[in-house]
Amino acid sequence: MSHSPKNLDTKPAVLTISGHDPTGGAGIQADIEVLTHFGCHPCSIISCLTVQDSSTVHRLIPLKADDIIEQAKVLFDDLPIAVIKVGLTGSVDAVKAIVKIIQLHPNIPVVFDPVLASGDGTSLANIKLLDEIKNTLLPLTTVLTPNTIEAAQLSGLQHDNNEESLGKALLNTGTNYVLITGGHSPGAVLRNHLFFNHEKQITYEWERQSGHFHGTGCTLASAIAALVAQGQSIPNAVALAQTYVNQAIKLANRVGKGQLFPNRIQQ
């Protein structure tokens, strides 16, 4: 006797393209946890492998562009992808592949967390990679979520830590929304700034949690992607995602010897 599935409701499918973190604290695994928490179906393409622990990235191993593109082709032929989330790219060739994928699907929103360094500050992007991201990927990005250091690198305003200047410069690249996060800035209050419509700004304030955390950028960008896939407007998705991340940090676990892991699957 055959049985029909009881639940035929379709979850929105979100494609995450990012690096593989063997600890599970960041990258693809973190994205999958967040997307699952928000009731989305996670699809994933690995852009690069990493040798890393909960403290630092020891080595980065790029994957071939053709393999990235081939994975995307079969996914898009099969599943109705609602949102694309991009994280660690790892190489110029990977960025070129990701840009090609996005160009083939211009109506799908793109949330990009530009991972340019590991949690301890180890650089994961050289000048050629930065230029490729700035010139080709940022103009196709719907929501960009850099921290202040990444915003300065991507905008070219290396000696300007004024969030308003950074936000406007990044909007001028063609990105629709820029959320600059303040986790790397000093002070007891953490301030994130959302820029859109050329100059409009919304500032969010959070009590800074003590400790060092692994994969918070992945968590935030994936939460925004999930909420957009669920039908939220981008400003609403940005606000709700920050509330979720703040709670995930409050409930963080010590899994390894280094940074704490946000608790992404919450009741």
Automatic annotation (TrEMBL):
Record carries keyword Kinase: yes
Record bears the keyword Oxidoreductase: no
SUPFAM superfamilies the UniProt entry points to: Ribokinase-like
EC annotation from Swiss-Prot or TrEMBL: 2.7.1.49
A cellular component annotation (GO) from this entry: cytosol
UniProt-listed CDD domains: HMPP_kinase
Superkingdom assignment: Bacteria
InterPro entries named among the record's database cross-references: HMP/HMP-P_kinase_dom, PM/HMP-P_kinase-1, Ribokinase-like
Pathway it works in: Cofactor biosynthesis; thiamine diphosphate biosynthesis
Primary enzyme class: transferase
BP terms from Gene Ontology: thiamine biosynthetic process; thiamine diphosphate biosynthetic process
Keywords, alphabetical: Kinase, Transferase
Molecular function in Gene Ontology: hydroxymethylpyrimidine kinase activity; phosphomethylpyrimidine kinase activity
Identification of the protein by name: hydroxymethylpyrimidine kinase
Organism the protein comes from: Cycloclasticus zancles 78-ME
